[in-house]
Structure formats: C-alpha cells, structure tokens
C-alpha cells in the first residue's frame, strides 16, 4: 500500500489516544513489563524503549551469538534501514538509508561512548576496530538524526557498541574459528576479580581471503580469467578493560585497546596514458602490465577512562576522557609516462582539472573522435568552461607526447600514509529535579589532528567545543515531553545548533505513540575541506628532465558549509508482556540539503554543497518470544527517495529487511536461521540465508565446550555491492570451538 495511504491510520491512532484512556481499559490489555532493558544511547538519559525520542534497535548478546557474525557490519544487517555493502572483501561500508556508496560519512559509531569515526577522512574502518565480537554485550542503534545528543557526525544515526562488564566473564575463554575462503580466527580472554575490581584481558585475531578469483575490468586494469582478487586481510587485536569501585558512590572504568591489520589491495594508481579498454589498444602497454602489490598496514590504539560519581540517588556526574591514534600506511612504486612531469600539463591541470582529464582521454584513444582536433574535442566536452589558452596548452602537451612515443617509463615511490589522532574530554551531569522532571547537561572539548604529506602536505589540527542538554518532562502519566539540543563550535567550520523536540502519548506504561522533530548537521571533514593532495616524487627513474613535480594537486575549497537535515517522525513502540512481543513502527520524512556527494579523486576533486536528497518511508521491527525456546524477529524498511547526485541514488533499496528464528532444543542444542534481503543495493540484489547449529557440553562442573557450524547461502547471483565482488561458490561455512573454564 502506498505510504500516504497508511498515514491516516497513524494519525487516527494518535487522535484516538487523545481521548480519556481510562474508559478504554487498555491497561488490562497492555501489561507493563518493568524488566525491559533500558536504553542509554538515544538522549543520554536512561530510558525504556517506549520513552526514547526516536526509533531504536537493540541487538542483544543472544542475537549477536545466533548471527554467527565475524564482523560488526554483518550484525548491523539486522537493523531496519541499515545498508551494509562491501567495497572489497576486507572493507565494509555501512550507511543508514543510503547516500554515498563509496564512503560512509554520516553515521556516528561509538564503543562505550568513544567515537571511532575517523577525524581526517570522516569514515569508519570496521575491520580495524580494536574489539572482538566476543567482548560485545549488546549494540544500540539510534535510527535517525541524533546530532542533538552526539554532535555533527551523528547525522543519519548512532551505533553504540557496549562491551561486556569484566565481572560477567570471570575465568578463561578460548575460541577458534576455521572455514572456507581462508577463515582463520581466534580469541582468548582471561578475567579475574579482586575485592573492589574486575579486569578482563582479551586477545584475538581475524583472517580470511576476501572475494575469490575475478576476470574482467576493474577501474583501469584488465584482470585475466581466474586471476586472484587481492582483498584478503590478517589482523590481531588487544583489549584490556578494568572496572574499579572506589567507594559506595564512585567508580572508574578504563580500557586500553590496540589492533594491527594488513589488508591486501589492488594497484589503484591510474596512469595518465592508460588505454580506456584493451580492445582499443593505445600507448604504453608496459605500463598496463605494471601492477605491484600495494597493501595497507593499519594500526589503531586507544585509551579510555570514565569516572562515575553518584552524588545522590537523583544526581550523577560523569567524566569521560579518551585518546586514540590511527595509522593507515601504504607505499609502493608507480610507473607512468614521463609526460606527467610536464610543466604545461601541470599548468593546464591548475587551471582546469576537467581540461587535463580531457587531454588524457584524447591521448589514450585519439582515433575514435571522428576527426576532431584536440582543442575542438575539449571545447565540445568541457561544459562551457573551455578557454582558448586551454587548447594552446593541450597542443603543447600533445607535441610532447609525440616526442615520447615508446619511451621508457618513469617510475618513482609514492605513499598514501595517513596518521590521525583524537583527544576528547567530556563532562556530563544528570539530575532528577522531581518525579516529573529530569535532565542531562554536559560539555566537551575535542582535538583532532591529521599528519600526511600526501593528503595534507603535513600536519593539520582542528578543535571542537560542544555544549549539550536534554530535558524530559512528564506533566501527566500518559504524556512525556522531551527537548534537547547541541551547540557546537568547530574552529574550521564555525558554530551550529541542532535541536530536537519529541512528545510521547502512552496507551500504557510500555506502549507509546511518539512524534519527533529534529534538525541535524554534518561538518565536512578535514580531507573534504582542507586537503592538499599531491604525490611527492621520491627516487625517480626514467627519461625526465626539468622539474620533478607530479602534474596535479587536489586542494580543498576551505569554505565548505555544513550539511543540513530536517527529520519528522511518527511512530509506535510497544511491549506485550504476556505474549513476549515487542513492536516498533516508524514513519519518517527526512530532507537532506547542502550535501557534499562528489567523488573525491585526485584528478577530480571538486567537493561542494550542491546536492540534495529526500527520504520517506516506513520501518518496522518485531521481536517475539513465541515460547520459552523460540524467538522470532522480523524487520522491514520501505524507503522512497530522490537525490540530485547520481552516487546518492544507487545505494538505497526500496525494500530491505531480515527474518530470524532462534530455537533452543533439548540437550543444549541451539539453532538459528536468518534471512537477509535487499531488492537493490548499488543496483544489485542481495539475498542470503544464514544458519547456525550449536551444541553446548558441560565438560566439568566448572567448564563448558561449545561447538558450532555456521553456514551462509547466497540466494542471488549478484556481486556484493560491486560487480567484481564475487565468490566461486554461493556457499560459505565455518566451524567454531569455544572452551570456557
């Protein structure tokens, strides 16, 4: 049924709820369930799911285990409206609702409140997060803008990964996972307690081969049939967490984490004179065949401390401080025509990067342009920006090319090394003023730092100040009003304010209808706004005379504004205790403006605030404990959208969702069956069924052995997000063995 035809049903329910409810005797039908888990992520106030000012998905430990997931993004497939794709076998992209397919710039991701959103390149490297899935207690996902509570990065939503308290894992745990496609994971942890503290040390590793062989064209390269697709990974992680109870009212929780990851990568330097297709032939066939390894060496480090002080039963003070450092190291030797060091080409690229690209395309395949001269071709294809001096420079470059026919390659060392650091200090004060009124207020300061000669020409810093407040007022037991906002002062962007207003009408204590209005912003990252992207030339060899400077430099505009969003939501959240049934339904309209949706390539680096997108639709999630041993979970998202940028039009399926059945059998057998589906993810269908069979055996009174088989079956024949992301077989399986003692 069309969305607009369903809207009167929701509005009618809202209006009906405005009449006196005592006469409806709804409390007898909708029984309260005070044991439901509280939500912390939404507003920074501890709330039940029916009180949250927006839509929440809570993925508990049982569901995480039943999924059999080896990566956090695989778990997020269980969130309605969450789009999980892969650029390569070792690189996930996670977006809520959609927008940019290549980079997930608009989703805040936290680990126990610490942001792992990269400060320089505004994305999340899921593979490098220094956290094993075995250490996760649950994941809270706020679906919708939450800048009011977490600042400019929480543009489309917030994922908060909450780790298990050390007291819950006292003892030793060992686990190994082996399977197809090179799967070779391991995990070991040791937890112990003293009179006033609990500590857990965990070590883990992950390894696989990524996607399988591939034959075809990827970017500018021609892959031979059955050629190995280099997108495997191998990494290790360290995590130490300790909770210390200082006295009856004060506690400290601290963590130290680190990870090291090697990710295979294909050679993605694009030569200036590479043939467009092998069938056309072209210049420099030796450059075509040159493709050395160019793998990533990545390291992440973090230290975090949270001090909690219960000043009274109604007043709490928290201080959160953390520091983290990320390194993305990648260096290799590239080869190209000596033409890339031409001063005339450099001058042309400085005047118009589009003109330089047109010259490159012309020189690659000159015979297909129907007798046009190079200036004539440029004039007809440069969107009205062509100038006569562009043609003059282009002709000089063409003459230089003729003089370099069949010349020796020019080769030199380049790198894409980047180091990013963040230092964050936050104070949060939570106060219950009365039974009807409570609030949370806080302030934070954050220092971001990037260091890269390639991307920034050196070191760049940014400082951000935040003031936030969320107020909850209950004038009547049936009515809850909430207001919140975040004021931010970004040294490089300016200041902004993001408000949120919400009202809840309760049919019963755990059943509410909600209306939410919120505004959000996303600040451009330092790479978008302040890049100075060039390739310093080192150890150059080949027939190059004169200046040794690569012809193109990409420079950020420095004046990008913030992306803007307005969101309206009408929803229902309810829990039927006797039936063990929880339901959340959401209708939303989201208007996104001033988006930067341009692809950021060194030869085409033109970030702007010119794009727009609109999302509207329904999301629903149902969690039903049918019996003591059976649990069903269903999610669905139907999204209608329009976007002015082509890249923003490709990621959002009209329909997506999941269906899960978890079952506990006699003799400690556990099974799960989960279906994931999306009708169009980057224009490709995705359907997969995941099955898990688990047996738990008590070895001794103090030890338990768990064996599990995980099976994944693709039901479609599409590539994963991109056409080249294919497996030889639609089936994947891996076995795990876990010992607890």
Automatic annotation (TrEMBL):
It is a multi-pass membrane protein. It is found in: Cell outer membrane. Residues 50-158 form the TonB-dependent receptor plug domain. GO terms for cellular component: cell outer membrane. GO terms for biological process: siderophore transmembrane transport. One of its GO terms (molecular function) is siderophore uptake transmembrane transporter activity. SUPFAM superfamilies: Porins. Keywords: Cell outer membrane, Membrane, TonB box, Transmembrane, Transmembrane beta strand, Transport. It comes from the Bacteria. Residues 448-709 form the TonB-dependent receptor-like beta-barrel domain. InterPro entries: Beta-barrel_TonB (IPR000531), Beta-barrel_TonB_sf (IPR036942), Plug_dom (IPR012910), Plug_dom_sf (IPR037066), TonB-dep_rcpt-like (IPR039426). Belongs to the TonB-dependent receptor family. PANTHER family: BLL4766 PROTEIN (PTHR30069:SF27), TONB-DEPENDENT OUTER MEMBRANE RECEPTOR (PTHR30069). This is Iron complex outermembrane recepter protein. It comes from Halopseudomonas yangmingensis.
């Amino acid at each position: 049924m069309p969305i607009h035809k369903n809207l009167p049903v929701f509005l009618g329910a809202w209006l009906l709820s405005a009449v006196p409810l005592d006469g409806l005797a709804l409390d007898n039908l909708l029984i309260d369930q005070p044991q439901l888990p509280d939500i912390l992520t939404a507003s920074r106030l501890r709330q039940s799911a029916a009180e949250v000012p927006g839509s929440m998905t809570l993925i508990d430990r049982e569901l995480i285990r039943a999924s059999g997931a080896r990566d956090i993004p695989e778990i997020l497939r269980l969130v309605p409206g969450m789009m999980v794709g892969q650029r390569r076998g070792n690189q996930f992209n996670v977006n809520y609702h959609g927008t940019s397919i290549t980079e997930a710039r608009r989703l805040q991701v936290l680990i126990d409140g610490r942001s792992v959103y990269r400060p320089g390149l505004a994305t999340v490297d899921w593979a490098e997060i220094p956290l094993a899935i075995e250490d996760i207690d649950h994941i809270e996902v706020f679906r919708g803008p939450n800048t009011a509570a977490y600042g400019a990065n929480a543009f489309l939503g917030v994922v908060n990964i909450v780790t298990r308290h050390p007291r819950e894992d006292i003892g030793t745990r060992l686990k190994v996972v082996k399977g197809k496609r090179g799967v070779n994971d391991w995990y070991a942890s040791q937890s112990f307690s003293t009179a006033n503290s609990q500590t857990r040390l965990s070590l883990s590793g992950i390894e696989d081969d990524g996607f399988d062989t591939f034959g075809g064209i990827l970017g500018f390269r021609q892959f031979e049939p059955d050629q190995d697709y280099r997108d495997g990974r191998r990494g290790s992680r360290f995590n130490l967490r300790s909770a210390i109870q200082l006295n009856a009212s004060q506690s400290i929780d601290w963590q130290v984490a680190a990870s090291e990851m090697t990710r295979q990568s294909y050679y993605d330097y694009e030569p200036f004179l590479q043939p467009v297709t092998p069938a056309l032939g072209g210049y420099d066939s030796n450059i075509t065949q040159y493709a050395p390894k160019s793998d990533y060496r990545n390291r992440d480090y973090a230290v975090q401390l949270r001090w909690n002080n219960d000043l009274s039963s109604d007043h709490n003070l928290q201080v959160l401080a953390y520091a983290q450092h990320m390194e993305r190291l990648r260096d290799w030797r590239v080869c190209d025509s000596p033409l890339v060091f031409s001063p005339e080409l450099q001058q042309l690229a400085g005047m118009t990067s589009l003109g330089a690209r047109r010259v490159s395309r012309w020189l690659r395949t000159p015979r297909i342009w129907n007798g046009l001269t190079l200036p004539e071709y440029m004039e007809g294809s440069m969107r009205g920006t062509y100038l006569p001096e562009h043609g003059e420079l282009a002709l000089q470059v063409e003459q230089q090319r003729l003089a370099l026919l069949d010349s020796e390659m020019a080769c030199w060392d380049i790198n894409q090394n980047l180091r990013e650091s963040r230092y964050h200090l936050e104070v949060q004060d939570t106060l219950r003023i009365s039974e009807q009124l409570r609030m949370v207020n806080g302030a934070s300061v954050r220092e971001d730092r990037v260091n890269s000669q390639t991307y920034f020409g050196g070191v760049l810093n940014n400082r951000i100040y935040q003031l936030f407040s969320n107020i909850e007022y209950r004038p009547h037991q049936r009515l809850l009003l909430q207001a919140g906002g975040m004021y931010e002062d970004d040294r490089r962007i300016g200041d902004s304010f993001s408000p949120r207003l919400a009202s809840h009408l309760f049919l019963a204590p755990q059943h509410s209808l909600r209306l939410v209005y919120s505004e959000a912003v996303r600040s451009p990252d330092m790479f978008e706004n302040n890049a100075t992207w060039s390739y310093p030339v080192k150890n150059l060899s080949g027939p190059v005379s004169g200046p040794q400077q690569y012809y193109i430099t990409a420079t950020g505009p420095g004046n990008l504004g913030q992306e803007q969003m307005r969101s309206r939501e009408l929803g229902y959240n309810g829990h039927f205790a006797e039936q063990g049934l929880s339901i959340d339904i959401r209708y939303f309209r989201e208007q996104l403006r001033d988006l930067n949706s341009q692809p950021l390539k060194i030869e085409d680096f033109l970030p702007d605030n010119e794009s727009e997108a609109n999302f509207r639709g329904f999301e629903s999630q149902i969690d039903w404990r049918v019996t003591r041993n059976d649990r069903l979970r269903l999610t669905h998202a139907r999204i209608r959208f329009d976007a002015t940028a082509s890249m923003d039009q490709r990621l959002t399926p009209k329909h997506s969702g999941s269906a899960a059945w978890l079952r506990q059998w006699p003799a400690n057998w556990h099974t799960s069956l989960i279906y994931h589906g999306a009708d169009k993810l980057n224009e490709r269908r995705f359907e997969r069924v995941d099955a898990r069979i688990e047996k738990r055996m008590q070895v001794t009174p103090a030890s338990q052995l768990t064996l599990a088989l995980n099976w994944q079956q693709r039901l479609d024949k599409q590539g994963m997000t991109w056409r080249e992301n294919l497996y030889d077989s639609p089936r994947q399986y891996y076995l795990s063995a876990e010992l607890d003692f």
